[in-house]
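Journal club side-thread
Mid-discussion, someone asked how the predicted structure for our own chain would compare to the paper's figures. Pasting it here so we can look after the session.
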Amino acid sequence: MTTIRPVIAGNSRGFLAGFAVQELQRKIATPPYNKLWELLVQRAREQIAAGRKSNFSIYTGAIGWLNHTPAVLEAALMALLANDADARAYVHECIKFIADFAGRARPGAVAAGYAGELAARAGLGAALPIHSHAQVAMAADILRPQLSDEALGTLLNFMRHTAIDYNAGRNGYTCYSAGNNIAWCQSTQAAVCALLWGDDCAHPAWRTVVEHGIAHTRGYLKYGCDAAGFSYEGTGYGHGVFYNMFNLVQLLKQSGYTDLYAQEPRLRAIFESALQSMFPDQTFLTNDNDVGLHGASSLYYLLFAYREYHDPAYLSFWYAYQGPDHPLRPYGDLFPWLYRVANIPGVALDGLSSLFFTVLYWDAAAAYPPLEQIKRPTATYSPGTERADIRTSWSRNAVYVNILGAGRSHMSQTHRHADAGHFSLFAHGDYLAIDTGRYNSNEDQHNVVLVDGKNHVHVKGWAMDHMKGALLNFQAHADFTYLKADMAQMKGCYWADRHFFFVNFGPDQAYLVTLDNINPDDSQHSFWWQLQANHDCKFTIASNNKAALHGPRARLDLTFAIPSPQDFPKSPHTLELRQDVQEWQWPYGRQQKIEGILAVGVLQSSVRRPRLIAEVTGLNGVILAVLSPRPQGDPPLAVRQRERRHLIEIEVEAGAYRDTILAALDRGYINTESVEAMTELLFIRRTASGEVVRTWSIDGASILLKA
């Protein structure tokens, strides 16, 4: 057995590095921090009792990796700052449990695939619960002077012979693993253990393990995220990684090891991507790809961002998303609300230690502007993940649209969805057009067009395919935003384009236009334009081209237009509207109690949702849809189609404006009594009196306005 040198008491390398214990004790006794501290103690005692009662079989975690030692960080802080003997005993129990866990095989816990290979490499009978051993390492670091000799010996031997070696090494940041959450977490949690205890336990290669964790972090930022900070694995899985990533980054800086904040600009981009993803009502982040809206339950690392970048907007974001009085997640603790609303028995567990980090890093005296006053763009496009986020403002009443292009990295193929051209829409307090979220990787689970009502790419499990799409020609103007989704590869078509117009016409007033142009093979097909709606909404169909989606507070008016019968006299286009109810496609959903899932609303929007289908038959899939979100009780916008040959012309009366969209797709020439241009798409805005205030063409072509 290796001889382990004694630990120097009080030599913290962790989250307390740079903090004075007496100052923290004064802080938690002073308003408003005393209220936060009381909540932390209450929640920690609940979780400690539940953990002991179940012999640590109650657990939570992120990205599928379990935390069998809940509240261990909170307990360490309670023991240090309040001399809580029971909390200190609990930390000792957690150390013993996780060391014992690593030394025995647990029925049903043996990991398959790559995780199993790593478990075998580390000499483990079961996959090590990576959140547990890293959090225990951090908790023990906090209590260095107070650890018993027995607990310290157990911890050091566990670190020396198991925890630090449980990593993928160089294989963890090359090829596919560079963008994979499991390998990343294994490498970086081992790095946490090595950073805090490698020297003390005389691990011969602890610095190498830390360097592997740093390299893997760089690899995930480069290959697992795009330049704007959006994760290729999706909102949920991405933020599951970010919880641990920012813990490691913060520990590295506070310990004086290295400063990744200064070296990796994509770290800051992650905060900006989360901000762009937030719903106007400040409840959740909209989903892209997999897991769903519940993935980002807490964003405590916004407090790290404020300290690092000195940007008050991050505090504005933190208060809006999880401030002290937030109805869903005060201080970031979502679980009590979730368990209560979903009627889940047992104790609500926060595996992310949001309250712990808030006690340390929240500065209640720091000034910040209201979120609606932050200086951030209201329309952004992110190349790579191919995502656009557009909103009328940063107010709670904003109209917000998220558009996806199915961008992919060959380094990160799992959790991918067939969502090229998909859009989600939130308006006037309601989530109306939804992203179906978790594991719904087929086209019939998204707001896209189906060719002949079928999924072109049938994928199973983790959606390991190489099909992708792109968003093109993003143009953000003061009064409207335009972009196009290229969906051809996802649909196996000669071409498949979806044009988007997000048009502003007043304070937090906007409408969305989608214009599809799909040609599978130069022959006639059926094209299903789909809208997946939140479960608390319902559709009404008024005519063969008009429908409405009704939510609790808002509604979405829909008007459709197709090519004129004179364009294809031998086979004119037809249009029929109908509705049905979609169910979750992945077996996990069918195993859960649907009542509890529906109770939490947008968190699990995949389950049982209304769907509107506008079915068009014709020699091409040219479908224009105007989607106008309105508060309940407000009159609908007037939308009219003017019959034209080889041209779709739509007129929308919106507030003080009369907007015209003209589309000559695949012809490239527009000529009417009022306008002429050699282009495929025109947008013209006039006042009610007819004065032209905006003209635009898709390619910058000159526009002749006739008298």
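Post-session note: Residues 1-9, 105-115, 121-126 have pLDDT under 50 and may be disordered.
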